[in-house]
Each structure stands twice: as C-alpha cells, then as structure tokens.
C-alpha cells in the first residue's frame, strides 16, 4: 500500500462531544476516504472538564475514593485512558452506522510504545502492524489518543497502560503521522486554524493561512492552545505536512510548513501575540558585588533541589530577579525566607566571613523564618558581618509574548513593544527574548488589554 | 539532536527531555544604561530602546533592572549605539569582547536545576556571568569572550553533549 495515501485526522474533545458534532467529524473522515486516501483517526475523550467522560471527571472519580490519599499513578493512568477508549468506541460505532467499517484501537493495540513515566510518558516507538492490517481489511482505524503502553520491564511486568500528559492526543496524531509516513496530519478543533491571538480576547484575530513549524512551536510554547507543543515538535522533526482545521466549517485552516518551504516574508514577520501562565516575580537586592555570584548560585541550587523551576532570570551588579509559576510561589518564598548564605572572606581579615540572610516582608512585617533567625545572629555579629538581602515580590503576573521570527535581525521590535505598553500605562516588570519571540512580564489584570494593544500595534488583524 | 525525517533512524520517536545542544555566539557587546528613578523608569526605558532602534541596531538579551536597563548586541555595531546614546544624553557603560553561550533543551521550563548546573560549570571554567536570559527552549549566558572555549568545555561536560557545529 502506498504510505503517502495515509492521512491522520485527530478530533479533540469538543469535536466528539455530541451526536451532531460526531457527525460533523465523520463527514471529514468520509470525505478523506471518498477522496481515495486512507484515514487513520485519533480521538480525544468526549467533552471538556465537567463532562461525564472527560479526563478530569474520570480522574476525580479515583481521587474521591480516598480524598486524603494521592492515587497511585498507575491506576490514575488506567482510569484516565478510559475517556479515549469510550470516545474511540463511540466514534467507530458512528462510522459503522454510516456504512463505513471501522475499528476502535487502544494506544497499545495501535502499537504505541512509551517509556514508563506514568502521567507524562513519551513515545519511544510505534509498531504500525495492527493499523496496516486494519487498513488492508478496509477498516478505518480509530485510535485512542493520549495513551500507549510501556515497554515490558520499564513500568510493571506486563506492559502497563500509560498516558502522554496534557495535549497527548495531538502528540498521538503527530507521532502516528511520523510512524506511518502519512501524507498529512490534520488536527481538527473548534476554531478554523491558528489565530494571530486568542479570539476570546481579540475578536478580529486573523486565521493564519500558512505558518512555519518554528512559528507553531513558539506560539504553542508561549500559550496558544490550538495544538500541543510536543505535537508541533514531532511534526517539525519529521517534516510532516500538518494542518489545523475546524471540524465544523469547510474553511481551509492553517497549513504548517518547513522554514525552507515558506515564503520569504514569513521569515521576518510578526506572527501573533500569545499569553501564558500565572506567575510571581521575585526581586532581590544583593549589595556586595564580590559575593553576588555565590549567592546567586545558592539561590539556583536551592530552587533546583526543591524542584522549583525559575524563569525570566536576570541580574545586574546588585540585583537578581526571576519568576516562578503561581503554584510554586509559596514553596519558593518559604525556601528563601530567612535563608542564610555564609561566605568566607580573607581568613586574616576581621571579620573573616559574611552571613547573608534573605528578608521578605508583608508590609512592615518580616516573614516568619527571618523574624526567628535574625535575632540569633546578633549574638555572633561581633565576629561576622551579617547582611540582609531584601526581597520583594510581584504577585499575579503573567507573560505576554510577541512571536516574531526576525526580531533579532530587525531593529525596533522591542522598542515598539515597550512604547505600546508605556502609552497604555501597563507596567512591564521584565522582558525575555528568544530567537523567535519577545516576552513581557506584566500584571495579570492587564493581559487582555496588552494582547489587544499589541495585536493592533503590529496590524495583525489585516 | 540530529534531525532526520525517518522515524526508524531516531533512537526514540519523540525528543528526549533535557539539554541536547550548546552553542556560542562570539563578538558580543553588553550595554548597561541608567534608567533613572522609579517614577521615570518606564518613560526612560522607552526612550533608550527607541534611541537604539533609530540607530538601526537589533538588540537581544534585554533586561530591566532597578535603575538600569541592559541589552546585548553584535560588537561591531557598538559604535553606532554609543553614538546614539551619547547624543541622546543617556548615561551608559559597555562591556566588549563578550560571548553568549546558549544551552538548548526541550521543555526547558519543565526542567529543574539547569541554571545551577550552568553556574557551576561556568565557575569551574573561571568564567563570570554578566547576564542571563531564558526562553522555553534556551538559556543564554553572557560571559567573557576569552573564557568561552573553557566555558563550552565545562558546559559540554556538565550536560554530556557534543561540541556543536557552531564551535567547530
């Protein structure tokens, strides 16, 4: 069978959450079949959070067994995978009812082999034998997204069921596209392609007709939720022709192409505005330049040991700052509050060492650990220097990003972002840039306005 | 990672998590410009970056500090920026002969401990870090140009990755 006639079509939760929506999805599948291609279908669980068979609902079922305990990840993966199994069965039955033979396949039956990390497994390889056999029998394979089985010995002794983490069904589709050498992977969703901004914030956000893999990867990493970044990376690595389309319209959608196949003007354009995450920004004043690298290193080490990821890092001769996600804020602040970094100086000098102690405060009230530990140091202050490192935090911040592939070649992108924010009175706490984007850390309350203003400033609605 | 379009040539179908590549950009300058008091900072930041943009010089690794802003740029355009900042009356200082080492990783923001390993490696290389920036896939560190080879070796050792083409 010519592999190039295979097409992978993935349908998200809102595309399969009602009979009407499933009928719309089946029309896409049947159209592909009638065009002479061999569709391989991937489905997500039915509906979004709150729906009876959605992944979150199933997860809650297990959590409710004993609210005081954390369910074992193995059982959690097993129950979470049920959503896709239900969805694939219903979709296969729907196709059968329309006269098209179809077969529902679990991830394991479809040959998807993962590592053994429950809840966030990565696909190691795919054995497509069962899918090829189904196609040879003229059956449409309907594969459960989001799941696979672990290689024997990696997790359990009989090939445990694993799930791929958030956005896992997109990952399944892209990986199947690579393994099957498909002529295309189509990701169907409830919007008609990749938008220049979140349409809930910017109603006149434009659908991009064409987008490079790098732009897609950048947009998705920075918060655009149309497809998962892992799927974008697989598509990029294997140069899979990828489309993002709507289940509910016949709009052409967005075609994703390699950089070297993209028109020249794509390489230096502003692609879109994305926003992501809720964070907290830490700022530390470190007075002694000579000891500052040691203190910075200890902060990095402490955060790493506690499993706190930091980002938007920066430092000047007397300051360091970084952001953490909101869910790690309390951990990070507790770790830093009252932390003491002893630094040895010249042993012949008096005092021979300096103790740096981190100080955070709510208003005029220092945090608990500082309050408890600082007085203890007074008894030895005749032998050592004790230096406070005042810390401050900006709570409730978020990141707004302008994706612009050529911004390091074109002067002024950064300047115009600052100008736009300044004219609107939106404070920018920090900036970060990659080769593909410029990101600003701003108050969460300003995110809608910032996205709208930047979208307008860069004329993305045209 | 090496990229091939044949999944059978990959040890694993998906990218592995973790650091996979380190490269160096040489001939970089770092510019630190006074941004004034808190009440005027936003206005001054706009003026500074506007001034540099009008000089036609792209900048990267831009950072906001308490009373200063800093950015990196190609060293051979430094005279243009110095001229523009001087003409506009900005107070600034510059560092020349720097390099940027860039550590590439998949899902960088899901990884813990990358920064401390970089800091440890740079310390072993005797290389001071003048600035740092990160994105979802990279950490950039601004270091002394003359220590860049030693830094690259130490980082390569720390993360177990091969020398990049950029270095060769």
SS element count, helices of chain A: 13
Q: Any idea what the CATH architecture of the largest domain in chain A is? A: 3-Layer(aba) Sandwich
CATH homologous superfamily label of the largest domain in chain B: ACT domain
CATH class designation of the largest domain in chain A: Alpha Beta
Concise overview:
Chain A has helices at residues 19-34, 55-63, 73-80, 82-97, 129-136, 168-179, 213-221, 229-238, 292-305, 329-336, 368-378, 413-423, 447-457, and strands spanning 6-11, 38-43, 102-105, 112-114, 123-126, 140-144, 147-150, 161-163, 184-189, 210-212, 242-246, 254-257, 270-285, 311-316, 319-325, 340-344, 353-359, 361-362, 365-366, 385-404, 430-433, 437-443.
Task: Provide a descriptive summary of the structure in words.
The complex is a heterodimer of chains A (462) and B (168). In chain A, helix 2 packs antiparallel against helix 3. In chain A, a hairpin with a 2-residue loop joins strand 18 (361-362) and strand 19 (365-366). Chain A has 13 helices and 22 strands. In chain A, the strands form four sheets. In chain A, strands 3-6-2-1-9-11-12-10 form an eight-stranded mixed sheet, sandwiched between helices. In chain A, strands 13, 14, 15, 16, 17, 20, 21 and 22 form an eight-stranded mixed sheet that branches. A four-stranded mixed sheet of chain A has the order 5-4-7-8. With 462 residues, chain A is α/β, with parallel strands linked by helices. Chain A folds into two domains: 3-260, Acetylglutamate kinase-like (Carbamate kinase, 3-Layer(aba) Sandwich); 263-462, VC0802-like, CATH 3.30.2130.10. The relative contact order of chain A is 0.10. Chain B is an alpha+beta fold and 168 residues long. Chain B folds into two domains: 12-26 and 97-167, ACT domain (Alpha-Beta Plaits), CATH 3.30.70.260; 29-96, Alpha-Beta Plaits. Helices cover 30% and strands 34% of the residues of chain B. Chain B contains four helices and six strands, in the order E-H-E-E-H-E-H-E-E-H. Chain B has a six-stranded antiparallel sheet with strand order 2-3-1-4-6-5. Chain B is elongated, with a radius of gyration of 18 Å. The two termini of chain B are 16 Å apart. The relative contact order of chain B is 0.20. Classes of the chains: A alpha/beta (462), B alpha+beta (168). At the A-B interface, strand 5, helix 6, helix 8, helix 9 and strand 14 of A face helix 1, strand 2, strand 3, helix 3 and strand 5 of B.
């Amino acid at each position: 069978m010519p592999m190039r006639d295979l097409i992978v079509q993935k349908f998200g939760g809102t595309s399969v959450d009602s009979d009407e929506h499933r009928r719309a999805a089946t029309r896409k599948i049947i159209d592909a079949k009638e065009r002479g291609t061999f569709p391989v279908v991937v489905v997500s669980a039915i509906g979004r959070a709150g729906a009876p068979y959605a992944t979150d609902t199933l997860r809650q079922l297990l959590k409710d067994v004993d609210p005081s305990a954390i369910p074992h990840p193995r059982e959690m993966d097993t129950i979470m995978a049920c959503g896709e199994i239900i969805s694939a069965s219903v979709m296969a039955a729907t196709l059968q009812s329309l006269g098209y033979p179809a077969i529902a396949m679990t991830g394991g039956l479809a040959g998807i082999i993962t590592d053994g990390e429950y809840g966030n497994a990565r696909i190691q390889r795919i054995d497509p034998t069962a899918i090829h056999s189904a196609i040879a029998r003229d059956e449409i394979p309907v594969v459960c997204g989001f799941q696979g089985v672990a290689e024997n010995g990696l997790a359990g002794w009989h090939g445990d069921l694993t799930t791929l983490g958030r956005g896992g069904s997109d990952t399944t589709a892209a990986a199947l596209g690579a393994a099957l050498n498909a002529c295309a992977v189509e990701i169907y969703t409830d919007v008609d392609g990749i938008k220049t901004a979140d349409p809930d914030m910017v109603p006149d956000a434009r659908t991009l007709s064409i987008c490079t893999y790098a732009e897609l990867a950048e947009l998705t990493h920075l918060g655009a939720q149309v497809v998962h970044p892992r799927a974008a990376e697989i598509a990029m690595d294997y140069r899979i022709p990828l489309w993002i389309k709507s289940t509910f319209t016949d709009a052409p959608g967005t075609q994703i192409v390699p950089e070297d196949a993209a028109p020249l003007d794509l390489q230096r354009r502003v692609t879109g505005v994305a926003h992501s995450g809720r964070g907290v920004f830490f700022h530390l004043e470190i007075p002694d330049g000579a000891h500052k690298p040691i203190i910075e290193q200890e902060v990095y080490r402490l955060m790493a040991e506690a499993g706190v990821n930091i980002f938007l890092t920066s430092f000047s001769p007397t300051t360091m700052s970084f952001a953490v996600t909101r869910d790690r804020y309390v951990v990070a602040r507790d770790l830093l509050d009252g932390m003491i970094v002893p630094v040895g100086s010249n042993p012949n000098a008096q005092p021979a060492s300096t103790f740096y102690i981190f100080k955070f405060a709510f208003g005029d009230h220092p945090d608990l650990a500082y309050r408890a530990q600082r007085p203890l140091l007074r008894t030895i202050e005749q032998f050592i220097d004790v230096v406070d490192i005042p810390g401050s935090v900006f709570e409730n911040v978020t990141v707004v990003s302008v994706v612009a592939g050529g911004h390091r070649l074109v002067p002024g992108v950064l300047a115009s972002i600052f100008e736009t924010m300044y004219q609107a009175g939106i404070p920018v706490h920090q900036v970060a840039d990659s080769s593909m984007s410029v990101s600003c850390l701003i108050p969460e309350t300003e995110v809608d306005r910032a996205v709208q203003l930047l979208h307008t400033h860069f004329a993305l609605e045209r | 990672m090496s990229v091939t379009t044949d999944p059978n040539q990959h040890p694993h179908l998906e990218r592995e998590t973790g650091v996979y590549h380190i490269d160096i950009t040489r001939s970089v300058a770092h510019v630190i410009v006074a941004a004034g008091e808190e009440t005027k900072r936003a206005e001054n930041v706009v003026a500074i970056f506007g001034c540099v943009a009008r000089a036609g010089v792209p900048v990267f690794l831009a950072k906001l500090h308490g009373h200063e802003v800093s950015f990196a740029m190609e060293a051979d355009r430094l005279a243009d920026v110095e001229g523009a900042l001087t003409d506009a009356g900005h107070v600034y200082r510059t560092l020349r002969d720097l390099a940027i080492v860039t550590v590439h990783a998949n899902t960088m923001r899901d990884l813990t401990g990358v920064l401390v390993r970089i800091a440890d490696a740079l310390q072993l290389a005797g290389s001071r870090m003048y600035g740092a920036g990160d994105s979802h896939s990279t950490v950039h560190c601004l270091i002394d140009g003359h220590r860049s080879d030693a830094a690259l070796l130490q980082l390569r050792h720390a993360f177990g990755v091969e020398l990049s083409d950029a270095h060769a």
